[in-house]
Specification:
The complex is a heterodimer of chains A (about 90) and B (about 250).
Chain A (H helix, E strand, L loop, with lengths): L1 H14 L7 H19 L2 H5 L3 H16 L4 H18 L1
Helix pairs in contact in A: 4-5
Chain B lengths: L9 H32 L4 H11 L2 H12 L4 H11 L1 H11 L8 H9 L3 H8 L7 H25 L5 H8 L1 H16 L1 H19 L8 H19 L5 H5 L2
Classes of the chains: A mainly alpha (about 90), B mainly alpha (about 250).
Chain lengths: ~90, ~250
């Protein structure tokens, strides 16, 4: 498990040593992080919490906070607190 | 967050990495807790579960592996499953290779490869300019040990931790994802629209009855490749310089 997991991570990093010039591949790799993180966030965030309501609220507040320029730590903490507080009442 | 990394000293970046790694570590602690429960349900002991987590540092990949161990699968089956479930790390590694300074030493590449996880990758690429090893090391140091510790705690403590805490912790990772993808979306409309499309398609893939049997990891890979490729065809990204700026 560990060997395969590491190989998957290592090989591209040591084999691709030059900047790729191809515009399609460049754009493709540029979009990947945003696409993959967006896919993993939703709808998973809704199912991670005890009720979909708190997950949805965390998603919305997280987007608003990040939009307003809050950093990684701040957005995380805000989302966690909101879920914790909301679930006291639900 | 937008301060220039190019001139920052290594130790400043290392500290910043630690600071940004802490929320990830807290998220890891919660997520790996449930991983530990799964590991010990299939017969691993505390120390085995710890080392599996420290060496793999992969949530879905470990879950899949533990399940197969429980089912008495062969090494080959486990290897193939691990490869498929973790294939997205290969995409991330490719993506990172484009952000490495050409004179980054091989040693650093070997070390940085270890911590290509969804979360650590996310914060690494959110930095402007070339990827700096010091930042990754700080973030890894603040988070990876907690992944292992959480696994052991889950294994040993089982279901003692209150559900309300686990529930609250579990959105930490998603909050962080949002903090990575939303600010660029504000500046770049293509990314904003892409994110909405991703939300929609991933929801469809998640709930469509005909796709229920496909593992989540596989869906993530397929959707990532298809959506990114289409975006690259229809909206080629401007210049190399811009892809380095955030």
């Amino acid at each position: 498990m560990a060997a395969v997991t590491y190989a998957v991570r290592l090989l591209p990093l040591i084999l691709i040593r030059t900047q790729i010039k191809n515009r399609f591949i460049q754009s493709f790799l540029y979009y990947i992080p945003y696409v993959t993180l967006a896919i993993m966030t939703f709808p998973a965030i809704i199912e991670a919490t005890q009720t979909p309501i708190s997950g949805t609220a965390a998603l919305i507040l997280g987007i608003v906070a990040a939009w307003c320029g809050a950093g990684l730590f701040d957005v995380s903490v805000i989302c966690c607190l909101l879920v914790f507080i909301l679930e006291r009442f639900i | 967050m937008n301060t220039n990394d190019v001139n920052a000293s290594g130790s400043a970046l290392f500290k910043r990495g630690i600071r940004n790694g802490i929320p990830i570590g807290l998220g890891y602690l919660a997520v790996s807790f449930s991983l530990g429960i799964a590991a010990c349900n299939v017969g691993l002991n505390g120390s085995q579960s710890f080392w599996a987590s420290i060496l793999c540092l992969a949530s879905a990949g470990e879950f899949a592996g533990f399940t197969l161990i429980g089912a008495g699968a062969s090494y080959l089956e486990i290897a193939i499953m691990t490869l498929v479930v973790n294939a997205r790390y290969m995409l991330m590694s490719c993506s990172m290779s484009q952000r490495m300074s050409p004179d980054t030493k091989l040693f650093h590449r070997f070390a940085m490869a270890y911590s290509i996880t969804d979360e650590l990758f996310a914060i690494a690429i959110a930095r402007p300019g070339y990827l700096r090893p010091e930042y990754s090391y700080g973030a890894t140091l603040a988070s990876a040990p907690l992944w292992g510790i959480g696994t052991v705690l889950g294994c040993l403590l089982g279901n003692i931790m209150p559900v309300s805490l686990i529930s609250a912790f579990s959105v930490a990772l998603f909050g962080m994802f949002l903090a990575v993808i939303i600010p660029p979306a504000r500046k770049n409309k293509v990314i904003a629209v892409l994110i909405l499309i991703c939300f929609g398609l991933s929801t469809a893939a998640h709930y469509m009855p005909s796709l229920q049997s496909i593992p989540t990891g596989t869906k993530t890979i397929v959707l990532t490749i298809v959506i990114s490729a289409l975006a690259a065809i229809f909206f080629p990204h401007q210049t190399e310089e811009e892809s380095h700026a955030e």
